[in-house]
Amino acid sequence: MLDRSLTPPADAPLFGRRDGAPVGWAISKDHVPYPEAVAAMEARAQAIAEGQAGELVWLLEHPPLYSGGVSAKPGDLLDPNRFPVFASGRGGQFTYHGPGQRVAYVMLDLTKRQRDVRAFVASLEAWVIGALGRFNVDGEIRDGRVGVWVERRTPGLPIREDKIAAIGVKLRRWVSFHGISLNVEPDLGHFDGIVPCGQTEHGVTSLVDLGLPVTMDEADDALRASFREVFGDVEAALPPI
After folding, report:
1. Through-space distance between the first and last CA atoms of the chain, rounded to whole angstroms
2. How confident is the model at residue 156 (pLDDT cuts 50, 70, 90)?
3. What rounded mean pLDDT belongs to the chain?
4. What is the mean pLDDT of residues 126-150?
5. Which of 5, 23, 6 is closest to 229 using CA atoms?
6. 216-231 helix and 117-133 helix, angle to the nearest 10 degrees
7. Which of 105, 152, 159, 214 lies at a CB distance of 3.0 to 4.6 Å from 58, suitable for a disulfide?
8. Which residues pair with 24 in a beta bridge?
9. In this predicted structure, what is the pLDDT of residue 154?
10. 101 has which bridge partners?
11. Is residue 123 within 8 Å of 134, Cβ to Cβ?
């Protein structure tokens, strides 16, 4: 006989916790240096794995920098002297972080959700797409291309696809860290120092570049609302540093 106590309701979050506990939601107002952020994130992920801390989503902005994931190719770093460059343990290739870009570090315990990496990444994509939809932006995914993309249509020209959000995560003891970055209003020229995520035939865009005067607070509100639908409820928390 089916034990209905173990069957999630039809309106349950896509990748929610089995116990329904809320996730801490922290926002840093000042720019956070990358090395300090990574150290704090890894310490929090370890504490989560050891049962000493709760799950956390940490929203922040970094000073301008390039980071290379585990698949980064040296030749994709076109201007190594432009900004500080950091090696990163996350998945993916080279990316840019900087002011006007909302970085969300996602520290979730998959043992309390699903031990399914593909489902987790698909849930991250659904989260970003849901947030973009609140601004009437159609975010899409593409086979063989990580992240979230938008189509740019100009009369008389071929359809162009630009990346609006990057995804790069790592799991340790089934706890995630790193996460997503959404381009709200960064200086898109800063991406010229790298081949973003190894893609030479596609560009990058942002909400403001698409003609939407979205503030960072508005982007955060959209991310929070979409996160609740995909991962479950949140509660206010302090940043780890």
Report:
1. 49
2. confident
3. 92
4. 94
5. 23
6. 140
7. 105
8. 56, 235
9. 79
10. 183
11. no
Angle at 236 between CA 213 and CA 18, to 5 degrees: 110
- For residue 30, report the phi and psi dihedrals to the nearest 5 degrees: -95, 160
Say if residue 2's pLDDT is above 90: no
> How many degrees, rounded to 5, is the angle at CA 109 between CA 48 and CA 12?
140
**How many angstroms separate the CA atoms of 30 and 36, rounded?**
13
Cα separation, 29 vs 6, in Å, equals 40
- Give the Cα separation of 97 and 182 in Å (integer): 10
Alpha helices by DSSP H, the chain: 34-49, 117-133, 216-231
Tell how far CA 83 is from the center of its chain. Answer: 21
List pLDDT tens digits, range 169-179.
Answer: 999 999 999 99
Strand 234-236 relative to strand 23-27: parallel, antiparallel, unpaired?
parallel
The CA–CA distances, whole Å, from 139 to 89, 93, 135 equal 26, 21, 10
- Contact (Cβ atoms closer than 8 angstroms) between residue 139 and residue 164: yes
Per the listing, tokens 């049962």 go with 51
Residue environment code for 159-195, b if the CB has 16+ CB neighbours within 10 A, otherwise e:
eebbbbbbbbbbbeebbbbbbbbbbbbbebebbebbb
Residues annotated as part of the active site: 197
Q: What pLDDT sits at residue 196?
A: 80
